[in-house]
Amino acid sequence: MIESRKPSRLDRWRGALWGMFVGDALAMPVHWYYDVAALQRDFGIVRDFQTPKDFHPNSIMPLASTGNAGRGSQEGEVVGSVILQGKKHLWGRRHRHYHEGLQAGDNTLNLLCVRVLMRSINKLGRYDADDFLREYIALMTTADSHRDTYAESYHRAFFANYSQGVPPDQCAGAENHDTASIGGLVGLPPVIMAVVRAGDAGAIDRTLLQHLRLTHRSATLERYALALGQLLPRLLQDPQPQIGPLVGQAAESLGFPVAKVVEQVTRERLDDLHVIGAMLSPACYIEHSFPAVLYLAARYADDFEAALIANTNVGGDNCHRGAILGALLGAALGYQAIPDRWLRGLRSRDALEQEIESFLVGCQA
Predict the structure, then answer these.
(1) Distance between CA atoms of 82 and 59, rounded to whole angstroms?
(2) Which residues contact 121 (CB under 8 A, 6 or more apart)?
(3) CA dist 119 → 128, 134, 297, 355, 356 (Å)
(4) pLDDT at 74
(5) What φ, ψ does residue 281 adopt, rounded to 5°?
């Protein structure tokens, strides 16, 4: 029997970055499915990358504003003219998939923004908010720069302001009912890692809040962002991180007794839907979605594959949960814990490898 090696520090940094893209891509075809029976009818138990169906039973894109954040009229032209050029007509069609145009192994728009962020950090050797904003605006406003169909509320709010001449660093939209969402955390792991890599751990909170506030203005969301900023560096830097206790501390600080929940689920042999679906909403709202990530990280602390499969198949905002879950478990278990079929199946594998390896330059093995 071959004893599995403990992942090196570099292997865990690599795992955290790859884990984000894998977690998002696995969940992409069933993103925002709230009817789990429909999810299973359409896809079975999702264990591998799949292409979205044309019909999405829970899609509410026709209710989303095309001129600003949230729900509302589709008379606005932010979607279609400023961003997502030529795709506005897809928003008004009932049951259109949010990610129409993507294929198995593709990443959603928020993860494409993470790639923009990593390339900016790679170019300058550090995080720079102004440079990220320039590159983010270029991605979002350039026709055919990506193939995704949907943009979250925060993107629409940002570009509603931008199109009116508001300076980019002031374009974050006013808080609405879904500003405090898990999607706001997706861009934070590379920022946290860049600060840790620079040896300036004291700047983590300041820098992650600076980045978050470029697109999200929410005191509620900031509380959870700071919790992530405490947890991820511990997983990356501790010689042998104990993910269970570390996740437990993070959850307890947010008022969620994750250890007790995991113990109950294990003792009573309950399904994950008992937690994510009954106890916690599967939706994007951060007070439920981040505890859901911590629950999955604690329950499947030694099994990256099982955790990401569980996250995907409970539905809801599983793409953004999956990105954060993948970062945490990748940081704890390392690159070697990620199934090779998922790594090979990412459609941007070659470009991602170049970007991730460039990001890791300077990290100690």
Answers:
(1) 23
(2) 127, 190, 194, 359
(3) 11, 12, 28, 7, 9
(4) 96
(5) -70, 145
Q: Token pair of 73, please?
A: 């009229």
Place of tokens 């004291």: 202
How far apart (Å, rounded) are the C-alpha atoms in residues 135 and 116? 6
**Residue 213's Cα: distance from chain center in Å?**
17
- Residues 272 and 314 sit within 8 Å (Cβ to Cβ): yes
Residue listed under structure tokens 């600080």: 253
Contact of 164 with 248, CB cutoff 8 Å: no
Q: Are the C-beta atoms of 209 and 222 separated by less than 8 Å? A: yes
Report CA-CA distances (Å) from 79 to 66, 88, 104. 5, 6, 25
Q: 52 φ, ψ to 5°?
A: -60, 150
Each residue of 52-88: pLDDT tens digit? 999 999 999 999 999 999 999 999 999 999 999 999 9
Tokens of 291: 């505890």
Domain range summary for the chain, segments of one domain joined by +: 9-360
Side chain identity at 240, as an amino acid letter? Q
Mean pLDDT (the chain) is: 96
DSSP conformation letters of 301-339: TT-HHHHHHHHHHT-SSHHHHHHHHHHHHHHHH-GGGS-
Which SS3 state, helix, strand or coil, does residue 231 take?
A: helix
Q: Which CATH superfamily is domain 9-360 in?
A: ADP-ribosylation/Crystallin J1 (1.10.4080.10)
Distance separating alpha carbons of residues 222 and 40, to the nearest angstrom: 35
